[in-house]
Amino acid sequence: MRFSAPTRTGAAATIGLFTIAVIALFPLFWMLSVSLMLPGEASNFPPPLLPKYPTLTNYRALFEQAHIGRYFINSLIVSSFATVLSLSFNVTAGYAFAKLDFKGRDLVFRLMLATLVIPAQVAMIPLFLMLKTIGLVNTWIGVLIPFAAGTFGIFLVRQYALSIPTEMIEAARMEGASELRIFRSIVLPSLTPVLVTLGTFTFLAVWNDFFWPLIVLTDEHKYTLPVALAALSRQHVQDVELMMASAVVTIAPVLVLFIALQRFYIRGLLIGSVKG
Amino acid sequence: MAKLSLKNVSKTFSETEVISGASLDITDGEFAVFVGPSGSGKSTLLRIIAGLEEIDDGEILIDGVDVAGIAPAQRGIAMVFQSYALYPHMTVYENLAFGLKIAGASRDEIELAVKSAAETLGLVDLLDRRPRELSGGERQRTAIGRAIVRKPRIFLFDEPLSNLDAALRLKMRHEFARLHDELNTTMIYVTHDQAEAMTLADRIVVLRNGRVEQSGPPQDLYERPANRFVAGFIGSPAMNFFDGTISEANSAGMLVQLKGGTKLQIAAMCDGIAIGANVAIGIRPEHLAIGREAKPNMVDAVVDLTEQLGSRTLIYVRTPHAANLSVIEAPGNFPVRSGEAVQIYLPPDKCHVFDVDGFALPRCPAP
Ligand SMILES: Nc1ncnc2c1ncn2[C@@H]1O[C@H](COP(=O)(O)OP(=O)(O)OP(=O)(O)O)[C@@H](O)[C@H]1O
Ligand SMILES: [Mg+2]
Question: What residues in A contact B73, CB-CB < 8 Å?
Fold first, then answer.
């Protein structure tokens, strides 16, 4: 890391960014703070910034009475499987659209892009009916299957895979590598940044998704976190502190995931393969 | 080691014929160099030989065996790409080892092969580096190393030196010559560089618009170009051309009348070309001589500009017989001024004559 000498514009930018960061982080901070307050404390006026007597009561209530641990696990399972599936299908398809020659490739790709104009909400009812025919309603597979492959994911991977030099793939082909081997040993390592990006997107999308699991899941035991919390909030509209604690439980894992993976996002791994 | 024959090979990319009936023989252990203008199909031809492109017509034989339908990896060919195409996430060692690993070689075999290739190419200290930590020349050598370890029957190199600076190019050119001496494997090499082509090649293959214009030893192409295109393409600075008509055939060859009326004696045979036919005379810059009094076979010229290159002088002159400037290669520090009127002498036995279709007329046998 190199630091440049402080300049006036630099200082102004730093102060500006710092202010924005504080504004952005404040709600998160207050959420955490309220989740540690005693029931009713946050409803005082003016609202307190920090809990007078920090307590884990709300969390205990969440886990012991509302069994939020189970829903947490449910969400974790559904999101993880959806991520794995999404990576498997989108990455292979995106690579194929970018680098493999097959009849009708561009036509199929353009048709697929055309489906982007259909809003997801419109597709939901037909999708639900299809799942019903197959018998996947009220199953986790039903929840995660729409995420397994998508135009957006395929498009994202394809655009990135286009930057892989074709000659690198041909070099491996000339060395006798099978197509699968090329994919595994040459293509996947080059795609790491987009794998991380797509994986994170998918995980977040499934983790936060409310409407679709609400439609598909009828059995309360199978609820994912957002669905369970919605049900919970209907019973506990007054308990601001409890709701904040549940918000913390929902947000914490994705926040951790985001921070842990952010360094992978932008990194280009192709430097050095090609001259110039 | 292998010999390679192309028979009437054609390749069409979306309606445009990129290779049109190319035929070619390259013998075992030969160093063949493909030259030609940009877009003439050099890379495409290499890719066809490698098996990366399928052909629409014709045959490719390696050691007499038709390789149609044989996968690239099974052809015993290694290719060094124009862009090197190293695997960026692998070290130099892993880059060299990849092909052997796939072929199922044992650890010891791989280690031995990689070490020996690394020694040949001076890569020993770089084996743990990744491509992005290498200089251009080192990447280049890694790419060559990746080809060498597989012990192919034929090497293909597509403009391997095009991104290196002049000094490194020269050094690597010598490396290629040494490598070929050492391995004695058939090599095909594409370049834009005249010096590389002339010095490295056992055989130069001149391509234009997907056709083989001429193929032969460098000196043959230089001294006996089969047509006007090859004559103009091989040699730097390029051959000079003057337009004229055949005015008579005689015992020493023919007499050609230039546009201004000057007649030149040339040691080439008319061979079925009628008197009065339009022809072009070609002569290389180093065969033109500057004189100051009139003699036979001389034409008038005015010096336009001179370039002092140290060991030699390039003199650009304007003549009434050619639209462009003609260039003369004279000894270093040659005493001549811009604007000076001179005579240039065309030795009869150094002139080439091309008919209207560009084909060279046969030259008279030396007396
Ligand atoms: N995949 C392709 N699809 C369509 N046309 C192609 C393809 N590959 C090459 N061509 C065309 O074929 C012709 C020959 O290309 P090629 O790359 O073989 O030329 P080259 O002699 O190697 O040129 P350069 O000296 O610039 O490398 C060019 O006109 C090019 O546009
Ligand atoms: Mg090329």
Answer: 173-177
User: Is there a domain that residue A18 lies in?
Assistant: no
Predicted confidence band of residue A272 (pLDDT cuts 50, 70, 90): very low
Proximal ligand: closest to the CA of B45:
1
Query: Which residue among B73, B83, B98 sits closest to A275, beta carbon to beta carbon?
Result: B83
Ligand 2 mean position, distance from CA B41 (Å): 7
Ranges of residues in chain B whose predicted pLDDT is under 50: none
pLDDT tens, residue by residue, B236-282: 899 999 999 999 888 888 999 998 788 899 998 877 788 888 999 99
**Residue whose CA lies nearest to ligand 1 atom number 8:** B44
Residue A216 sits in a domain whose CATH number is: 1.10.3720.10
Q: Does A190 touch chain B (CB under 8 A)?
A: yes
Centre of ligand 1 from the C-alpha of residue A275, in Å: 19
Residue A222 lies in a domain: yes
| pLDDT tens digits, one per residue of A160-180 | 999 999 999 999 999 999 999
ipTM: 0.83
Does ligand 1 have an atom closer than 6 angstroms to the CB of B43?
yes
User: Residue ranges of the domains in chain B?
Assistant: 4-232, 237-354
CATH of segment(s) B237-354: 2.40.50.140
The number of distinct structural domains making up chain A is 1
Architecture of domain B4-232: 3-Layer(aba) Sandwich (3.40)
| Nearest to B355, CA basis, from B248, B249, B268 | B268
Closest CA to B273 of B288, B259, B256: B256
Determine which of A163, A167, A170, A175 to mutate to test the interface with B (most B C-beta atoms within 10 Å).
A175
The partner residue sitting opposite B130, judged by closest CB among A170, A175, A272, is A272
Q: Can you give the pTM of this predicted structure? A: 0.82
Structural domain range at position A176: 59-273
Name every chain A residue with its beta carbon within 8 A of the beta carbon of B44.
none
Ligand 1 and B13: CB distance under 6 A: yes
